[in-house]
């Protein structure tokens, strides 16, 4: 729209979340969310912080002292101080940016490869590789409202399933609730869906420094620091499609061991 004397703007307002949130990547780090490349015109993206103390005259007298100051440290940092922090109850608490690798720093070869597939309106696939005891998240891809066949065709077109000429392919561990849809995924087999055991295994790998993610895996990276439990200890089932696929790939593969050839 054109209005004489006016400039078009998009204004976004949010309580800060994970440092890997798309808003932090674009507005604070000045990088493209999907690729990590520098913004072409960073001057078009700017930010400002407005905290409760800046708006004190419009708040109840005891709101800051009795409500915000009394919050747990992480919530206080986020809601009172406006800092970008990991959420409370985050499941992969010890995952940090040192575990994010550039493509050039990823292994050239892997002992074996596997993938995990999550179905639903948000359909996702995460590919991993093993080198000894270490896990590397090689790539991820997701789509919205796409049929399983079309999704698999897209993965094929992207060279997702490409292997050496004398290779045997690799398993794609699919959400067992997917039913017949797993037959439309190349290499599709039922995943082990032991949620807590899978999470514990991945956490153990993270704690031992045996877990790495390629910086191009924007799906996994967008979810990993906001994957949380509620106050009752239950996993919050929001924005977890890539992490479900990741768990299928890792825990199913370790349960089956090296795939028979």
What does it look like?
The chain is an alpha/beta fold and 261 residues long. The protein has helices spanning 22-28, 63-68, 73-80, 148-157, 195-207, 218-223, 241-256, and strands spanning 100-101, 112-118, 122-131, 134-144, 172-174, 188-190, 211-214. The longest helix is centred in the last third of the chain and has 16 residues, at 241-256. The protein starts with 21 loop residues before the first helix and ends in a 5-residue tail after the last helix.
Concise structural overview:
This protein has 261 residues and is of the alpha/beta class. Helices cover 25% and strands 15% of the residues.
- Spans of at least 5 consecutive residues whose pLDDT stays below 50 are none
Classification by helices and strands: alpha/beta
Radius of gyration: 21 Å
The neighbouring-strand order within the major sheet is 1-7-4-3-2-5-6
Q: Percent range for helical residues?
A: 25-40%
Count of discrete alpha- or pi-helical segments spanning 4 or more residues? 7
Question: Quick one: overall form?
Answer: globular
Question: Main beta sheet, described?
Answer: 7 strands, mixed
- N/C terminus separation: 61 Å
Task: Find the count of extended strands (DSSP E, 2+ residues).
Answer: 7
């Amino acid at each position: 729209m054109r209005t004489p004397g006016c400039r078009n703007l998009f204004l976004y307002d949010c309580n800060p979340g994970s440092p890997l949130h798309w808003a932090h990547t674009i507005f604070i780090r000045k990088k493209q969310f999907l690729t990590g490349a520098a913004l072409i015109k960073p001057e078009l993206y700017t930010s400002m912080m407005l905290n409760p103390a800046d708006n004190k005259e419009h708040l109840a007298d005891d709101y800051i002292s009795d409500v915000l100051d009394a919050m747990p440290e992480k919530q206080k940092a986020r809601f009172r101080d406006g800092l970008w922090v990991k959420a409370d109850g985050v499941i992969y608490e010890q995952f940090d940016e040192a575990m994010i690798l550039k493509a050039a720093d990823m292994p050239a070869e892997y002992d074996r490869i596997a993938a995990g597939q999550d179905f639903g309106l948000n359909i996702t696939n995460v590919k991993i590789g093993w080198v000894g005891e270490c896990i590397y998240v090689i790539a991820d891809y997701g789509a919205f409202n796409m049929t399983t066949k079309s999704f698999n065709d897209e993965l094929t077109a992207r060279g997702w399933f490409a292997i050496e000429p004398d290779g045997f392919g690799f398993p794609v561990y699919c959400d067992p609730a997917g039913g017949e849809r797993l037959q439309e995924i190349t290499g599709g087999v039922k995943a082990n869906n032991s949620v807590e055991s899978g999470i514990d295994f991945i956490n153990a790998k993270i704690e031992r420094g045996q877990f790495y993610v390629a910086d191009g895996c924007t799906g996994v990276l967008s979810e990993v620091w906001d994957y949380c439990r509620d106050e009752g200890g239950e996993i919050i089932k929001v924005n977890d499609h890539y992490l479900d696929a990741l768990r299928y790939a890792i825990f199913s593969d370790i349960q089956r061991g090296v795939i028979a050839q």
